[in-house]
Amino acid sequence: ELAAIATLKRLADIRVIGWQPGIDTDELKQTICTAIAASAGWDMLLFFGHSNEANAVGGQIAIAPHTTLSLRELTPYLQKAKNNGLKFALFNSCKGLDIAASLIDLGLNQVAVMREPIHNRVAQSFLIQFMQSLARFDDVHSALQKATQALRSESNLTYPSAHLVPSLFRHRDAVLFQLQPVGVRANVKTLLPPPRWQ
Length: 198
Hints:
Elements: H1 2-6, H2 25-36, E1 44-48, E2 51-52, E3 60-64, E4 67-70, H3 71-83, E5 88-92, H4 97-106, E6 110-114, H5 120-135, H6 140-155, E7 166-170, H7 184-191
Parallel strand pairs: 1-5, 5-6
Antiparallel strand pairs: 2-3, 3-4, 6-7
Helix pairs in contact: 3-4, 5-6
């Protein structure tokens, strides 16, 4: 997963936070919450690991062995992140429907989740394909479609129907999130003449 995320380094500022042996779990919780709510803001939030439905608390994510964070606990930090520009969240983890509902209710425009339990290999393959599409400046809907099509062709015999598990939830009028070119790539489009049919 980290290698897949690294494909975006030339396009995005990436911060990875995760459990390591010896780290105090309360300190890890605070680090995660503080990072999510950073005043500089984030365009995209990505979680990969284990999660579960928990309707009473809006879903749960596992951040360390025997340690979870509920979406209810994360809500004030996610609200700050949304106010600071958060546009899209991807939870590449099992049973994400409660998580998606919580984030959409919070006002986040676009959330991608896995609706059902999914095998680690399938989740990894999905993430690689999804990140590659984002790096090519596809919007999140197109990236999800391409990743699920790849799953269908790669995993149909070993993990039938796995391609049906990833889902994108979004507000109807939301502009689909996509990474924007930076540096020279951002200026090339303005230098090119318009297409003849315009």
